[in-house]
């Protein structure tokens, strides 16, 4: 009478059709014109170029139209590109310290990451640590060394300690020192190169 029997071919077909996922559930990506900024002229140039290469390929795999450009404070031509979005893969000064973000804000560009003020604060480790302390957030005790105060070392810094630039990343010029002689020598070298050095109490992690 036109009614399928349980287990018949037509009944199995209906069951299979119900289990087949709808194509409408597959997410789609609207292709964008994206500029990836990488390189620059900071100490972290090579790290940035590697980051930019990986990001560019990943965005292309998602179907976006992507161009990678090397940009620095002295070479801003890439900002003239007509794009939908900018992915910042720069590391260190200019790219992470709020300088580029401020320029992009002024030009009305959309970009990845934090804005100018937050980037500037986060890049300056001393200002960031002061912000932590004012918000009752724990942070290792520290001292800002300069070429003028190397002979007046504070008692609250004990060994071992970590010496690093105040505004840099990727562990560039970061040193673990275990003696007073090492601490003074290394702090002097970092301060000479960057103007000042951040000395922090070493915090040992899980072994």
Question: Characteristics of this structure?
Answer:
33% helix, 207 residues, Rossmann fold, 2 domains, alpha/beta
Offer a concise description of the structure.
This protein is α/β, with parallel strands linked by helices. The chain is built from six helices and seven strands. Helix 3 runs antiparallel to helix 4.
What is the strand tally? 7
Rg from Cα? 27 Å
Query: Termini, distance in Å?
Result: 76 Å
Mean pLDDT metric: 88
Class inferred from helices and paired strands: alpha/beta
How is the topology of this model organized?
Elements: H1 9-19, E1 33-38, H2 45-61, E2 65-70, E3 85-88, H3 99-106, H4 116-123, H5 125-134, E4 142-145, E5 161-165, E6 175-177, H6 180-194, E7 197-201
Parallel strand pairs: 1-2, 1-3
Antiparallel strand pairs: 4-7, 5-6, 5-7
Helix pairs in contact: 3-4
Explain this structure to me?
There is one protein chain. This protein has 207 residues and is of the alpha/beta class. The protein folds into two domains: 33-122, Rossmann fold; 137-201, ATP-grasp fold, A domain (Dna Ligase, domain 1, 2-Layer Sandwich), CATH 3.30.1490.20. It has helices at residues 9-19, 45-61, 99-106, 116-123, 125-134, 180-194; strands at 33-38, 65-70, 85-88, 142-145, 161-165, 175-177, 197-201. The protein has a four-stranded antiparallel β-sheet with strand order 4-7-5-6, covered by helices on one side. A three-stranded parallel β-sheet has the order 2-1-3, covered by helices on one side. Helix 2 (45-61) links the parallel strand 1 and strand 2 (65-70). The longest helix has 17 residues, at 45-61. The radius of gyration is 27 Å and the shape is elongated. The model is unreliable at 1-24 (pLDDT under 50).
């Amino acid at each position: 009478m036109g009614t399928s029997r349980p287990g018949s071919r037509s009944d199995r077909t209906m069951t299979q059709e119900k289990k087949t996922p709808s194509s409408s559930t597959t997410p789609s990506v609207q292709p964008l014109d994206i500029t990836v900024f990488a390189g620059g002229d900071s100490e972290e140039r090579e790290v940035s170029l590697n980051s930019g290469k990986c990001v560019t390929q990943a965005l292309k795999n998602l179907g976006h139209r992507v161009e990678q450009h090397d940009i620095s404070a002295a070479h801003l031509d890439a900002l003239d590109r007509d794009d939908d979005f900018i992915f910042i893969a720069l590391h260190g000064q200019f790219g992470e310290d709020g300088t580029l973000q401020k320029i992009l804000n002024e030009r009305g560009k959309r970009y990845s990451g934090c804005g100018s003020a937050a980037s500037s604060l986060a890049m300056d480790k001393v200002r960031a640590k002061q912000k932590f302390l004012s918000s009752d957030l724990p942070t290792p005790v520290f001292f800002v060394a300069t070429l003028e105060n190397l002979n007046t070392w504070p008692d609250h810094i004990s060994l071992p300690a970590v010496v690093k630039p105040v505004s840099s990343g990727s562990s560039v010029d970061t040193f673990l020192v275990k003696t007073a002689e090492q601490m003074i020598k290394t702090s002097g070298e970092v301060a000479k190169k960057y103007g000042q050095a951040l000395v922090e109490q070493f915090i040992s992690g899980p072994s």
